[in-house]
Amino acid sequence: MPSVSPAELMLAAASQPLMREVFGNIPGWAKGLFYVVAAVAVGAWAYGIYRRVRLWRQGKPSGGVNYAAALKRVVRDVLLQGRFRGRPFASLAHVLLFSGFFVLLIGTTLVAIEHILADLLGRPASDPVFHKGLYYAVYELVTDSFGVAFLVGCTMFLVRRLRGAGSFAKTPADVGMLVLLIVIGVTGYVVEGLRIIHAATPLPGLSPVGYVTASLFTAAGVDQAGAGRLHFALWWFHAALALGFIAWMPYSRLIHSLAGAINLAIRNERLGTLRPISMAEVEETGLIGVAKLEDFTRQQLASLDACVSCGRCQDMCPAFEAGKPLSPRNVVQELVGVMNVRGVGGQSAGGSGQEKDSGLPLAGGVIGEETLWSCTTCGACADVCPLGVSPMGMITDLRRFLIGDGALRGSPATALQKTDRVGNPFGLPQKERLAWAAGLDVPLVKDNPEYEVLYWVGCAAAYDRRAQKIARSVVRLLQAADVNFAVLGPEERCTGESARRMGDELLFQQLAEQNVATLGEHRAKRIVAHCPHCVNSLRNDYPQAGGEYEVVHHSQLLSELVADGKLPAMPTTTAVGGSITYHDPCYLARANGITEEPRAVLAAVAGQGGGNADAGALPIIELPRNRRETSCCGGGGGRMWFDDAPSQRVGRGRVEEIVGSGAATVAVSCPFCLMMVGDGVAAEKPTMQVRDIAELLAEATLGPESGAANGNTPPSA
């Protein structure tokens, strides 16, 4: 038969109906064999999924699921890939691969539905049920285009792995999987090109890549009969690869596609919230925290399989950056290894056999104690993970077991003991809790029961001489703005935030119960706190203890007062000399999304805001890692109470970043940041000032406090 070009085929087929015969050029016996092989592949896939789900279900119930919220997260985070940000190359590659795979999966499913319906209705292959006409035209163009996206995404990932770029885990199996996917995609286009030639497809240009492939074969001398023979052979090769991929998927790292979708749907989205432990559960099991894999929740066990070991969490971890033994990625992968070897709750995992069981306990064994205590619970790992895995949540659960087992020693254990004994980690008497307010005439709730705002001072500002300046500045501003406020004074106790994140859940619940009772007695409704850790605990932890309040950070209230003109007009010259940079606290910016209010306060201080804008306004220098992508000062998660030298602290990389900004002043909005950044900056650049935004605003609007130089307050009583 003479060679015929695709253009000639198009003209010859112009009078044919626009359609595609399903299983064209595939004889009946081959169809039957295909269905047998497909059933085996799907069976292997189903068993692999069942095996993993059986493991997940050995964990503790994860709690009720809000199906409306879960559906919203599936659409936003899974289908629209909403969590893939940063790493432009890798993010683009994943979006291309996922979208291409998803559309091709839908296309393959539609073809299967067409074939099944045609068989049920007794329709001949030449008369499809719906795979024809305009639908067919759109189908061909869409699947052909997204197939290209799929191949480009796979190729990008393969190149990245072969170049050794990125911090993801690199294994031969991962490279093999990418090669397999690329071969499946390429052979799909080859089969399509041969089909176009053999079937004289109407409008072959609807499959542009297939049309180009057909043109190449025709140019090479492949005629219609030869195309039919090649099509049949390559169709089987393509089908075998695709079915092999389906069978292999649950036994490879690609299980993350299913586990990740489940995890994104049912996970807890609030970074500042930890899973509570009921006292009834403790009494029943005699256990606090996680000792064995089955002590994790089902959602957490599913999230272990969701982890693809991409390393984003490790790249964002301040402890890893500081050289601590903590890698969030490795924590998860070590637990995955245990699950694959030991199983969960006595259920066999059926692992690959490559892992070796160390026989060590999870907390302090598989995951070392120093690794667990290195975490600042900044939430960066959970926030950056595209699949919503939270190494931080697993770490805090393992810490709970260590605390229950009496494994914590030294200064952090002493801080917990002091908190339990006298209500604050400094170990100072409750009666001295108002000493910071000497000479300020600060009203107590018992003396001003009609207050509108309760100022929660917190332990640091109550007892630390440097942090006391924050509280004094806040009070001066509230008084100047004529805000009707009050404080609890000696009735206030530690929120228990550090205790909870260190793992002492019982101490936290004890403190929360006492504080909720006190706040209820005084009918607290709106609470302002300058400490993000107190804000987070009152906002996100206390509802679990029955305390529901409107809780705002002092930057939010101060920015309101500035915007409403309730503070004295600021001078046209700034209150500080030189430029300012701002450090976002993790528990303010990342956990609670408060980023712009502190900047609004600083803009006013620097002469950039409102009617006080000045042509000579000082610049506010943004640090490279800012807002939600901030980096931890090193004081969270109880690390505040560890005796690390400034050069050994988790936040030393952040200090270098701050000093490198060249600013004269670094503004903070957290007492922990004030202390940790202050110590680090003092060692690196003693001339740089570290000030809370309330101090800067008070000095700009009210001037230095009487009897104090440069904003320094008198010693506390």
UniProtKB/TrEMBL annotation:
UniProt xrefs under InterPro entries: 4Fe4S_Fe-S-bd (IPR017896), 4Fe4S_Fe_S_CS (IPR017900), Cys_rich_dom (IPR004017), HdrC_iron-sulfur_subunit (IPR051460), Helical_ferredxn (IPR009051), NarG-like_domain (IPR023234), NarG-like_sf (IPR036197)
GO terms assigned for molecular function: 4 iron, 4 sulfur cluster binding; metal ion binding; oxidoreductase activity
Alphabetically ordered keywords of this record: 4Fe-4S, Cell membrane, Iron, Iron-sulfur, Membrane, Metal-binding, Oxidoreductase, Transmembrane, Transmembrane helix
A cellular-component GO term for this protein: plasma membrane
Pfam families: CCG, Fer4_8, Nitrate_red_gam
Protein's cellular compartments: Cell membrane
Endpoints of the signal sequence: none
Residue spans crossing the bilayer: 32-50, 89-113, 133-159, 171-191, 203-222, 234-251
Lineage: superkingdom: Bacteria
Family matches, as SUPFAM superfamilies: alpha-helical ferredoxin (SSF46548), Respiratory nitrate reductase 1 gamma chain (SSF103501)
Membrane topology qualifier: Multi-pass membrane protein
Major place of residence: membrane
Ranges for domain 4Fe-4S ferredoxin-type: 297-328, 364-395
UniProt-recorded name of the protein: Succinate dehydrogenase/fumarate reductase iron-sulfur subunit
Organism: Lacipirellula limnantheis
Taxonomic lineage: Bacteria, Pseudomonadati, Planctomycetota, Planctomycetia, Pirellulales
